[in-house]
Every structure is written in C-alpha cells, then in structure tokens.
C-alpha cells in the first residue's frame, strides 16, 4: 500500500505521478491513494472515485496524446470535455470550441 498523500498538495504533485505509471498494478495502487486522499477531504468513496477519474483524465489532456491514451486505459477514465483519447485526439480548434461552449453555458445559467 502506498503511503497517504499529504493533505495539502498541488494538482501537479497529485496527478503528475500518474502520468508516468505504466502497469495496471501501479495504476491501481496510485488510484487507491488518490481516492483515499479525496475521501479524507470529506467525500464518499463513489464520489471520490468519480472525482479522481475525471481529474486524472483532465490532467492527462495536457500531455502528449500517447500519454493520455495510456493513462485513460490504466485508470479507466476519459477526459470530461473531449471524451476517450482512444477515439480521437482533439485539435486546438476542438479545445477552443469547447471553451466557447462552456462559457456560453455558464453565461446562460447566470442570466
């Protein structure tokens, strides 16, 4: 069992190590540590698993496509905006369009 993550931790410190995981056993152990950390902040297990899968996938979106595909496969997750990396790599225009769509939705909800 991996030692617990510190209560105060940066996003990079928390999810960066997941980007170098290469085996299912490593992924399972690190995911368990992430979930335990999230639960220590007051989340129930199901919610913590959902939060951590989405966060890992989102963080992986900043890495090369090959890393994102591997991470999503090992951690059984998909990017919350672009979906599964194995389907297609998003373009810069896809990212721009997703940002516009999110901003539009937020503005409509605020009015």
How does this structure look, described?
There is one protein chain. The chain is built from 5 helices and no strands. Helix 3 runs antiparallel to helix 4. The radius of gyration is 15 Å and the shape is globular. The model has no long low-confidence stretch (mean pLDDT 91).
Brief account:
The protein has 111 residues and is mainly α. It contains five helices and no strands.
Order of helices and strands: HHHHH
Low-confidence parts, pLDDT < 50 over ≥5 residues?
none
Which bin fits the share of residues in helices? 55-70%
Number of strands: 0
Provide a count of the helices.
5
- Largest pleated sheet: none
Mean pLDDT across all residues, rounded?
91
Radius of gyration: 15 Å
List keywords for this structure.
111 residues; mainly alpha; 5 helices
Q: Layout of SSEs?
A:
Elements: H1 11-15, H2 24-40, H3 45-60, H4 65-75, H5 92-110
């Amino acid at each position: 069992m991996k030692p617990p993550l510190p209560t105060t931790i940066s996003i990079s410190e928390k999810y960066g190590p997941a980007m170098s995981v290469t085996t299912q056993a490593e992924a399972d152990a690190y995911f368990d540590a992430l979930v335990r950390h999230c639960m220590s902040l007051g989340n129930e297990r199901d919610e913590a698993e959902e939060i951590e899968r989405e966060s890992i996938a989102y963080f992986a979106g900043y890495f090369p496509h090959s890393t994102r595909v591997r991470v999503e496969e090992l951690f059984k997750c998909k990017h919350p905006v672009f979906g599964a990396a194995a389907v297609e790599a998003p373009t810069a225009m896809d990212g721009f369009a997703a940002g516009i769509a999110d901003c539009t939705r937020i503005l409509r909800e605020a009015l």
